[in-house]
Write a structure and sequence with these properties.
- By secondary structure, this protein is an alpha+beta fold.
- The chain is built from 25 helices and 19 strands.
- The strands form 7 sheets. Strands 5-4-17-16-15 form a 5-stranded antiparallel sheet. Strands 2-1-3-13 form a 4-stranded mixed sheet. Strands 6-11 form a two-stranded antiparallel ribbon.
- A hairpin with a 5-residue loop joins strand 4 and strand 5.
- The protein is elongated, with a radius of gyration of 36 Å.
């Protein structure tokens, strides 16, 4: 019997020896043990925006302080540096329980835990137990040192709070890098290893907090007994648990984070062929273009710079605000305001949102004319209430094929040059200019600077495109105006600078973004920029955007009934083109108590000013290049005095509120206005000269005499007047037949 028993034992030993020899240590850990989170960074590549996927960030052995390493050893395996890598007692207990039907238990050493969690699957079988033992015995030879085993272990284990590995735990519990952990913080994290998810000083279970405290003291005591913590430090740290962050903390997608991360994921998939699954599965490091300081400045500008403008409250009234700031030299988006909070409004006002462009489309009309060889000195119509045919000639209202009368919101000379036209945002001037140069060519210009074709193609034969009856997106406006700022190059606006591997060792893939050079000549961009500077100067529609120490070029946009308002502008330094929009997605008038009806020159311009003034601090003011005044001068407008402005403008480009509206009675500007004077009767027969008096009777003179004094009367606008007749101008394009009245048809897609 003894011989048989000995033979059986030897046979078993031989089988175990064979199994040991045939059990390799895998070259890599299992998929779950090596998963890491995809991390999104600001443009500095260091400051995190958020993480997606498994929250694990591997660190090297030397990045982990000694007191943190020994805290883990004190908690889990105090003989780690002297044992063989597995516990006979633990394995025997596990085998016995398995044979007798008891609960399967794991080994107790750090090496065994690593073998189980890093190399093997979670199955609870005898064969896996023996593999765990054999791998544990071979690990030190395989990895070369106990230090490497400890490094892998601390990068693998779960610490609760969705934190895998010591670095993620340091961030989740203390908001700091592992290298900054103090001895007591390291001891608490080590204490949590035994029961992650239960042990937590912030637990709402009092018993769990008591157990956490007891385990923490156990670790501190172990560190003291191992000579890794002084008696004095033990006495100090044992008095209390270290302070930890609240459970949960800031949500990954909270605030502006969601807009940034979601946009980055979309661009990577659409433009670079890197799917969201690929980003998360591979734990990629995505370095975005967003500048943290500029992001803060954008939030402050939108939410704090204009009293009464509260994006969260306005959202309940269907009013949306968006801001985006694009680097004019490369298309990188450095700041956005997509909405008050992604978790409250996932709709992105910068990329998904669009609203009628209003007069913010006029710079594209101007650029088209200059590109066509005309100069800034070209004159256009400025009389309110005139109608045009398809060639841009003034014709009598009601003429077949003619546009409905075009209204201006201001009075002024009958003919003005293009600089004055953009400064005052003359509707008649830009409708005429668009017709002269060809509305399809204006649409082509807009598309060449990045405006989506679906937003302009439906209007490419409608003169209303010059006044922005089309919708437009803030990101496209910022990128479009950037072409004027940089001398004629279009850069695709984008939010990703670089994608790196999970170990941050190198680039995951080279990124490529669209670029078009020579969209405009330098002469054109200098002249457009010069004209747009006048918009911000006295007499322009956006004086609220002006900066005290450097020039600004930009354009306002305000649509019919003030349902959408804009200001887009840029500076020479900082090299940023920034678009600000405010619109009502139910097509209702933008109205704020105390501010009245909102125009582009009011709230958007003030927000733009607040943001740009903040980000310009510490930068050297620079001047724009002087105008080139290229091209040839054309004369498309009258030179006689203009009648008064229409009371019902189609495009309201004025900073002044309508003080006749009782809703504006509290507006400060209305309070400063004087009571309108009674119209002055004209002398003599009551008809006067139409300039400084109001006619009181119908003229009885002949048509020539009437038209001399009242050129705006219908009978005087038959297209035959010499001042209006430019049908023989060799620069005229073929007439663009206009069958659709000039109206505003929508403010949302």
């Amino acid at each position: 019997m003894v011989g048989g028993g000995l033979f059986s034992f030897l046979s078993l030993a031989a089988l175990i020896g064979i199994a040991y020899a045939k059990t390799p240590v895998p070259d890599q850990g299992n998929e779950e043990a090596t998963k890491t989170a995809a991390i999104f960074y600001y443009r500095d590549g260091k400051t995190e925006i958020g993480r997606l996927g498994t929250n694990r960030v591997p660190v090297t052995f030397d990045q982990i302080p000694e007191h943190v390493r020994y805290a883990a050893i004190a908690a889990e395996n105090r003989t780690f540096y002297t044992d063989s890598g597995f516990s006979i007692k633990g394995i025997t207990r596990a085998v016995w329980n398995n044979l007798t039907g008891g609960e399967t238990q794991g080994g107790s050493t750090i090496t065994q835990q690593l073998a189980k969690n890093y190399y093997l699957t979670p199955e609870q079988t005898m064969s896996r137990k023996f593999k765990e033992m054999f791998i544990s015995l071979k690990l030190e030879d395989k990895l070369g040192s106990k230090d490497k085993i400890l490094e892998l272990y601390l990068n693998t284990i779960y610490f609760g709070r969705n934190s895998y590995g010591i670095q993620a735990a340091a961030k989740s519990y203390f908001g700091k890098d592992v290298s900054k952990l103090t001895p007591d913080e390291g001891a608490l994290l080590a204490a949590i290893i035994q029961q992650p998810g239960r042990f937590d000083p912030r637990s709402d279970d009092p018993e769990a907090v008591k157990e956490t405290q007891a385990r923490y003291l156990y670790v501190l005591d172990g560190m003291r007994k191992m000579g890794k913590l002084s008696d004095a430090d033990y006495a100090k740290y044992s008095q209390r648990l270290p302070e930890t962050k609240e459970i949960g903390g800031t949500a990954t997608f909270g605030g502006q984070n969601g807009y940034m991360i979601k946009r980055a994921l979309r661009e990577l998939q659409r433009d670079q062929g890197i799917t969201e699954d690929e980003v998360i599965r591979n734990g990629l490091r995505v370095i975005t273009t967003f500048d943290r300081k500029k992001m803060i400045a954008a939030k402050q500008a939108v939410e704090k710079s204009v009293p009464g403008v509260d994006p969260e409250k306005l959202l309940k009234q269907h009013v949306r605000l968006g801001l985006t700031s694009v680097n004019t030299t490369n298309g990188e988006v450095e700041a956005i305001y997509g909405g008050p909070d992604y978790l409250k409004q996932s709709f992105d006002n910068v990329w998904a949102g669009s609203a009628q462009a209003g007069s913010a489309m006029k710079p594209y009309v101007l650029a088209t004319a200059l590109k066509n060889g005309w100069s800034l000195r070209t004159t256009v119509e400025n009389r309110s209430g005139v109608s045009f045919n398809g060639s841009g000639q003034v014709v009598a209202a009601g003429t077949p094929g003619a546009l409905a009368p075009i209204r201006n919101s201001h009075s002024g000379p009958a003919a003005i040059d293009l600089v004055k036209a953009i400064q005052e945002s003359s509707n008649t001037g830009f409708v005429q200019l668009a017709l002269k140069v060809g509305v399809p060519n204006v649409a082509e210009t807009a598309e060449s600077v990045g405006i989506s074709s679906d937003l302009v193609e439906p209007y490419k034969n409608q003169a209303g495109l010059a006044l922005g009856i089309n919708d437009i997106r803030p990101i496209e406006q910022a990128a479009g105006y950037a072409v004027f700022a940089n001398g004629g190059t279009y850069y695709q606006p984008h939010v990703v600078r670089e994608v790196r591997t999970k170990d941050n060792a190198g680039k995951y893939k080279e990124l490529s973004w669209k670029k078009r050079t020579g969209v405009f000549s330098e002469t054109v961009t200098r002249d457009v920029t010069y004209a747009m500077q006048q918009v911000v100067k006295p007499g322009g529609t956006a004086t609220a955007a002006a900066l005290s120490d450097r020039p600004v070029a930009g354009k306002t946009g305000t649509t019919e009934k003030n349902v959408a308002t804009w200001f887009i502008g840029f500076t020479a330094n900082p090299k940023l083109s920034t678009a600000v929009t405010m619109f009502n997605d139910k097509k209702k008038t933008l109205y704020i108590p105390g501010l009245g009806e909102i125009s582009g020159g009011a709230v958007p311009a003030r927000i733009w000013h607040a943001y740009t003034a903040a980000v310009a601090q510490g930068t050297t003011p620079e001047q724009f290049a002087p105008p080139a005044f290229g091209g040839s001068q054309q004369s498309f407008g009258k030179t006689t005095p203009t009648p008064t402005a229409s009371a019902t403008p189609e495009d309201r480009e004025t900073e002044e509120p309508d003080c006749s509206d009782p809703r504006n009675q509290n507006n400060a500007k209305c309070a400063q206005q004087t009571t309108p004077t009674t119209p002055t009767p004209c002398p003599g027969n009551g008809n006067g000269n139409g300039n400084n008096c109001t006619p009181t009777s119908t003229p009885t003179q002949g048509t020539d005499q009437i038209c001399k004094y009242f050129p705006n009367r219908p009978e005087c606008q038959d297209g035959g007047d010499d001042d209006d007749d430019d049908s023989n101008d060799p620069t005229d394009p073929k007439p663009q037949q206009q069958s659709t009245p000039l109206t505003y048809t929508r403010s949302r897609p």
